[in-house]
Please model this.
Amino acid sequence: MNEKPLMNVENHGIVSIDNEIQFADNGIVSRTIMKTDEMRVVLFGFDKGQELSEHTSPFMAWVQIITGEAELSLGGERHRVKAGDLIYMPPHLPHAVNAVERFSMLLTMVKPSAKAIN
Model:
């Protein structure tokens, strides 16, 4: 995720998510939409059967499923999610992603403030 973001936080802008989604056969494509020290917005395209193994993040995170279906493991519980679903994950929650079919998602990660975690 070290590419140049599609949007510059110094200016206003419009990005067509539908036009920016990319897929790779047997792979996962990530595209950074916006990035600051406190926040990141990343667009993912997963081919069917691709997965991210269980991990944690120090960020608060929201996942919006754009197209397709996936299985998310959130704190050990499995959830089937589909286009239109919005998922919230608090910091340090163990989570994993498995593409049931080709799907895309928009991930928004925000560094929690001291107030947010107290």
Q: What stands out?
A: Strands lie at 28-35, 39-46, 51-55, 60-67, 69-74, 77-82, 86-89, 95-99, 103-110. The two ends are 30 Å apart (CA to CA). The longest strand covers residues 28-35. The chain has one domain: 17-117.
